[in-house]
UniProtKB/TrEMBL annotation:
GTP binds at residues 29-36, 97-101, 151-154. Increases the formation of ribosomal termination complexes and stimulates activities of RF-1 and RF-2. It binds guanine nucleotides and has strong preference for UGA stop codons. It may interact directly with the ribosome. The stimulation of RF-1 and RF-2 is significantly reduced by GTP and GDP, but not by GMP. It comes from Puniceibacterium sediminis. This is Peptide chain release factor 3. One of its GO terms (cellular component) is cytosol. It is found in: Cytoplasm. Pfam families: EF-G_D2 (PF22042), GTP_EFTU (PF00009), RF3_C (PF16658). Residues 20-289 form the Tr-type G domain. Gene3D superfamilies: P-loop containing nucleotide triphosphate hydrolases (3.40.50.300), Peptide chain release factor 3, domain III (3.30.70.3280), Translation factors (2.40.30.10). Keywords: Cytoplasm, GTP-binding, Nucleotide-binding, Protein biosynthesis. Its main location: cytoplasm.
């Protein structure tokens, strides 16, 4: 076996074909709607796991606070689930996990910069819940195509039209039924596939059995009478007729533009509707898309390889202090051993140990294509937002860093360990787990997060991974804003506002305050200075 798979003219694989079969997506849902169960079935049908139950730990671990911390400690579980690749029919699916907890909105946002589509899972009894709505809004910011799976139809669910109306109204998106449920709860028989005119019957006796499919010649096919009791059939015919009259027909272009979502009904736990959804992702989901970058956009079919870091995970292996940068390939055909330019530092990096994530396993990625997610172990050179290219000075844009909403001062339990603490904090800041500011005046560090739970997770990770007990204390500041402007004006601003100035882990200047009044004052008194609550993660 050669060490690398450098393409030669004779084995040069076909870039457009490889790209066309890739589907890179995330699942968004409210906790408990069935994301873990659905993920598991995806992996099962993708041949990535042998039996249901292997990713179970994750769903359960998330239930309570302390379990969630345990999950964070047990890097193995959450990390292997961060990105998973598997084949389904002619497609290569790359499923990127969105962090489960609502606190991690920034992390979630960045995850969604790495995907081309999202699958929205809703609970048929509950409809659109708060977390789904939030995640949906984030997808909308990027016009991501959304495919919807209405889960738990084996339980009492809402009326089908009501569910569709609710999605249309709450999320302001057209909904088109891809399948139509026949009964619900105890009476749930299966679905009529409206796109392919097929009857799909659920096997209640065996949860792991895939539905029986019977081809139909439309809804008037007498074969239907054989399989569906008269009363349910009459209702099905009436409802589908109404649906075809009242609801928009599937418009693939509108789906790709994010204006329309097809909805499948099913029951993940009973393996029902999942394959239809997977077929739908293949047929209607987008191929890898053009990536925004400066000074020009990147098209996936470009021969040259480019990619960007959307997540950094430290201490995946507690024995080694290395980190893994999750890189979404934006273009080209990557092969192991390639030398890529790290645009921020202008240095070349030989990518010798890239990893592909296959469910619970990691394996060396001999090659990968635009749309794929690879992990690159490194010693801290790679940060969120960084771009890798074959030499061109391109920078992927649109990966923001948000101003934290909660600030606290952090101190080491043992004051002699302040230096160690600084190292730990810098690492977490680079990972994107928190913002760390060093105030120009006074000692210690100020840590900023978006959700309160992050303080706990951070405290526990510093203790676990660095053996450093830490204390969080209230800070005199409550907000942080990045300072932008012409250098001389920024210098003058810093000189005049020293008590409010700090630097983040990249050395960028921030203005720290506890009063909106201060922020308004700066706007009034310093017309050349802009205070911003986001900073694009590129330098
Ligand atoms: P999440 O990742 O979105 O939080 O949801 P998860 O898959 O963990 O599912 C939440 C609960 O809903 C689980 O039950 C799961 O078994 C159940 N569930 C998932 N899909 C279906 C479905 O199609 N029908 C029904 N009836 N239930 C479903 P649990 O009792 O919390 O856990 P477990 O004891 O089943 O493991």
């Amino acid at each position: 076996m050669p060490d690398t798979l450098a393409p030669t003219p004779s084995n040069r694989p076909d870039l457009p074909t490889e790209i066309a079969r890739r589907r890179t997506f995330a699942i968004i849902s409210h906790p408990d709607a069935g994301k873990t169960t659905l993920t598991e079935k995806f992996l099962l049908y993708g041949g990535a796991i042998q039996m249901a139950g292997q990713v179970r730990a994750k769903g359960e671990a998330r239930r309570t606070r302390s379990d969630f911390m345990q999950m964070e400690k047990d890097r193995g579980i959450s990390v292997s689930a961060s990105a998973m690749s598997f084949d389904y029919k002619k497609f290569r699916f790359n499923l990127v996990d969105t962090p489960g907890h609502s606190d991690f909105s920034e992390d979630t946002y960045r995850t969604l910069t790495a995907v081309d589509a999202a699958v929205m899972v809703i609970d048929g009894a509950k409809g659109v819940e708060s977390q789904t709505q939030k995640l949906f809004e984030v997808c909308r910011l990027r016009d991501l195509p959304i495919l919807t799976f209405c889960n738990k139809m084996d339980r009492e669910a809402r009326d089908t039209f009501d569910i569709i109306d609710e999605i249309q109204e709450n999320l302001a998106i057209d909904v088109t039924p891809a399948s139509w449920p026949i009964g619900m709860g105890r009476e749930f028989l299966g679905c009529y596939d409206m796109l392919r005119d097929r009857l799909e019957l659920m096997d209640r006796a065996d949860r792991n059995k895939v539905a029986e499919t019977i081809e139909m010649n439309g809804l008037d096919d007498p074969l239907l009478d054989k399989h569906v009791p008269a009363e349910q059939l009459a209702k099905l015919r009436e409802e589908v007729e109404m649906a075809r009259e009242l609801l928009p027909a599937l418009d693939p272009q509108s789906v790709l533009e994010g204006h329309m979502t097809p909805i499948w009904f099913g029951s993940a736990i009973n393996s029902f509707g999942v394959k239809e959804l997977m077929d739908g992702i293949g047929t209607y989901g987008p191929e890898p898309q053009i990536q925004n970058a400066t000074p020009r956009k990147i098209a996936p079919e470009e021969e040259k390889v480019t990619g960007f870091v959307f997540k950094v995970q430290a201490n995946m292996d507690p024995k080694h202090r290395d980190r893994v940068a999750f890189v979404r390939l934006a273009s080209g055909h990557f092969h192991r051993g390639m030398k890529l330019t790290h645009v921020r530092s202008k240095k070349q990096m030989a990518i010798t140990n890239p990893v592909l994530f296959l469910a619970a396993d990691r394996e060396l990625a001999e090659e990968a294509w635009a749309g794929d997610i690879i992990g690159i172990p490194n010693h801290g050179q790679l940060r969120i937002g960084d771009t890798l290219t074959e030499g061109e000075a391109l920078r992927v844009s649109g990966i923001p860093s948000f101003a934290p909403e909660l600030l606290q001062t952090v101190r080491a339990g043992d004051p002699m360990k302040a230096k160690h603490l600084e190292k730990a904090l810098m690492q977490f800041a680079e990972e994107g787990a928190a913002k760390v500011f060093k105030p120009a005046f006074g000692s210690g560090f100020i840590v900023g997060v978006v959700g309160a739970l992050q303080f706990e997770v951070l405290g526990s990770r510093i203790e676990l991974e660095y053996g450093l007990p830490v204390r969080f204390e209230g800070s005199q500041f409550t907000s942080a804003r990045w300072v932008h402007g012409p250098q001389d004006k920024v210098d003058a601003f810093i000189a005049a506002n020293k008590q409010h100035i700090g630097h983040d882990n990249d050395g960028d200047v921030v203005y720290l305050t506890r009063l909106q009044w201060d922020i308004d004052r700066v706007a009034r008194d310093y017309p050349d200075i802009t205070l911003s609550s986001t900073k694009e993660m590129m330098v």
